[in-house]
Write the structure tokens for this entry.
Amino acid sequence: SIEVTGSAPLFTSADSASATVSKSFRFTVKATGTPTPKLSKSGALPPGLSFTSHDNGTATISGTPNRVGTFEVTILAKSTAGETTQRLSIAVTRT
């Protein structure tokens, strides 16, 4: 049998964020686990935002959103000890 050592990924960042159209936005996604999980996303971010994984259990969603609405993305944290997902809701509003 194969013994899995470590701890499965666990998200420690919030599952929602608020942004304002035409204003700079930055949100850090964080997950813990051993070994350190890699983060990726599926689903469409608000136009104007991008997702950057830092390969250290964190990722940054940043940019300047240019459309009002609520956007749902799924973040995946994966390592050899397991994987987990988190739904992230980003609400973009006018000032």
